[in-house]
């Protein structure tokens, strides 16, 4: 029996097939043998096969991988559940090398490149580091690289730690504007209560809205090697669905955990709007930190779907930094759009009216030429 909390059945297969950018979170219990403290070789190889299959279908893939602490803990002969923060950091330092090596070797055999990206909560709350992190991940995807992301446990203190990779994966999906986040777990989705504790637990196949009732169903961690649990997965779903990204909680214990995932028993958290629509709405609702006045030719180019280049900018007003929202106005004073500016106010003043090839000479360093990229702009009706 399944819950009827949401009675409109979505076309899950269509949603899955249309997802072009996918983040996959792999839990430590799936990846690492508890007793041996080593990678589950056969499962890992089958998971890599699934990722390669996604790439062949033209999908960008980012992996958020747990496992470093458990790998390092075994190497250092540290007992589970008795680790201080410092011991966890030491274990992470040792285990991260092992984890990265496994990914690199597997993907290299298939002719693919992967990279290591270590992040802390502070990297998302600090505006400059947030933009740098976003830029790096997007550039890696452009080059066809598969980023392997993990929390930087080696340097993160309690106040700047995520503590679990569910919420970290949600933030990565958000900044990369992904369509889908897959949380591979040791359970096949959300139930009305813990199926390990109650025979009356009812599985929920899809959720259109995260209500208080849904949140109350989430419990804590179910095993000793996880920092998360269903509660953190609900928190992750809140983040992703708010930015237009769908999320699925699926059982990843069997081999080829991604293969036919849209046809298996799982829980889907469905976003009410697309990534692009959610982003545009967010930009329009943000407070503007300044203005950029553009000429008629640039205005025409923007309305044709082009980015705003410095050559079409005549004047900037206000004090803003890279990544701030600014208002774009025409020469007649009419408000045209809002957008996330790629240069600070000081930099913008230096490059007003310049052609793209002249920007590096004016600034003294190379940057992408768009003053506001078309993907970071929202137009008023």
Could you please describe the fold and organization of this structure?
- A hairpin with a 5-residue loop joins strand 13 and strand 14 (335-340).
- The protein folds into 2 domains: 12-278, 3-Layer(aba) Sandwich (Carbamate kinase); 286-379, Archaeosine Trna-guanine Transglycosylase, Chain: A, domain 4.
- With 381 residues, it is α/β, with parallel strands linked by helices.
- Mean pLDDT is 89; it is low at 220-227.
- The strands form 3 sheets. The chain has an 8-stranded mixed beta sheet, with helices on both faces.
- 37% of the residues lie in helices and 19% in strands.
Summarize the entry for a quick read.
The protein is of the alpha/beta class and 381 residues long. It is built from 14 helices and 15 strands.
Order of helices and strands: HEHHEHHEHHEHEEEEHHEEHEHEEEHHE
Question: What is the CATH first-level class name of the largest domain?
Answer: Alpha Beta
Lateral arrangement of strands in the main beta sheet: 3-4-2-1-5-9-10-8
Using the coordinates shown, work out and report the CATH topology of the largest domain.
Carbamate kinase
Overview features:
8-stranded mixed beta sheet; 14 helices; alpha/beta; 15 strands; 2 domains
Helix and strand topology:
Layout: H1 12-18, E1 21-26, H2 28-31, H3 41-56, E2 60-65, H4 68-75, H5 85-109, E3 114-119, H6 122-125, H7 127-142, E4 146-151, H8 165-175, E5 180-185, E6 190-191, E7 203-204, E8 206-207, H9 212-217, H10 230-242, E9 246-251, E10 266-269, H11 275-285, E11 290-294, H12 296-303, E12 313-318, E13 325-329, E14 335-340, H13 345-351, H14 359-363, E15 377-379
Parallel strand pairs: 1-2, 1-5, 2-4, 3-4, 5-9, 8-10, 11-13
Antiparallel strand pairs: 6-7, 9-10, 11-12, 13-14, 14-15
